Amino acid sequence: MVEMKEKQLPLRISTGVAGLDEILSGGLIPNRSYLVRGGPGTGKTTLGLHFLEAGMRKDEKGLIISFNLGEKELRELMKGFNPDLQNFSVLDLSPNSRFFSEVESYEIFAPSEVERGPITKTIIERIEAEKPKRIAIDSISQLRYLASTSAQFHKQIRSFLYFLIEKGTTVLFTSEVSSTNPDDDMQFISDGIISLSNSPEGLRTLSPLKYLGSGFLSGLHNLKLSAVGMEVFPRLVPQNHARPFTLEALSSGVPALDEMLCGGLERGTITLISGPSGTGKTTLGMNFMKEAARRGERSVIFSFEEDPELIFHRADSINIPARVMVEKGTLSIQRIEPLQYTPGEFAYMVRKEVEEKNARIIMIDSTAGYRVSLQGEDPVSHLHAVCKYLQNMGVATILINEKEHLTGSFRITELGISYMADNIIFLDYIERYKGSIIELKKAVGILKKRMSGFDSSLHELEIGPNGIRISETLRNLKFIIAGLPSWQEPE
């Protein structure tokens, strides 16, 4: 037999943005040219500076050829997100005040193929003198206005990029995009294309459109621009992530509840805890985390509705040592402020907890909060991707779902997400009639458990200073599915 050799992947260099490197299967292939296209304010210049920054970290010389911003502005921008790295070279070709007062031709190339124009000469002299390994050009669109014809521009830019590549550089060049100024010609001559965009709602996205000689993670990826530069959050594809785990049951620490669940909740399963406000959904979920802490495992609550202090206060009152768990690192409570995160950014936060900090239980509190708090459309598909990722990684996932109605037809969730749950625990209020006395009680039941059998009867639930107590099976109940559960005790 002929021995098959493992295919060697091309060497990669970092873009300077970790999330983008992941999208591009490790980064850029060196000695090629890459087009970064987008409208004003989408982050093209920032990405170019990150690209140079990554080279400087490896002692590679970097040069930015700027036709837009002046050198002072570029250095201020870089200083904002990395004050320690200022040793990059700037060839400032942006128009200055003299451009308007001097009657001179501002051309990139002279008409003659033999005689180089002043800008061309300046570029060549700087490159030959400094021998940079990375070059960012911002923006190459400005050169289009200086060429006599589109055909001449295309020919000259292609020759220009070839010259840079032959000098052993990797080139990142930007292009301003609009309906009146397409850049199709630039797309044809580049080895890779990264498109940046802003939605009318302010949602920033990045999309790789072309990468010769390499695969990449296609689709729209959320990005964020801030004082520290650019962050990119790769689109979560659950099937690209998995690790082996043992399908074992996790105890809640409440014997009666474990008995109802035939041992507990299994690793790698998705559990939906649904019920009206105040029935104890979060408390029930935190009991599984309390037991995980006893095993030395880490749990995380992503809270879309309550501040951590409120959660601590409630936990203290029901004998769950949440503060101690946080101090020991077995629990993290992260408040997700409304409209501050995109679905991609939230998914990246979840991934960091699982892959870097080995979180074993994740609770999302609540699904309604997730829907209204994250920017973007189609929250159910994003939540589905996060849950399936956690399932593949062997993490027990708990989704807290608040029913909007106390009465009416029985429903598990208004979001239509019950299909993705392996387990469904529902809590509800019941009216207890004893003679002329009417009391409002809480009840808990199991509606679904995919990995084992379960107790299908309804039990009274009490939450007090000593934690959760679950009674024997409730009898003489009426109208449960109708959404009006009542309990008539025999007289």
Question: Can you describe this structure?
Answer:
The protein has two domains: 18-234, P-loop containing nucleotide triphosphate hydrolases (Rossmann fold), CATH 3.40.50.300; 249-488, Rossmann fold (3-Layer(aba) Sandwich), CATH 3.40.50.300. The radius of gyration is 30 Å and the shape is elongated. The protein starts with 17 loop residues before the first helix and ends with a strand. The chain has 491 residues and is of the alpha/beta class. Mean pLDDT is 86; it is low at 1-6 and 103-116. It has 15 helices and 22 strands. Strands 12, 13, 14, 15, 16, 17, 18, 19, 20, 21 and 22 form an eleven-stranded mixed sheet that branches. Helix 13 packs parallel to helix 15.
Summarize the structure.
The chain is α/β, with parallel strands linked by helices and about 500 residues long. The chain contains 15 helices and 22 strands.
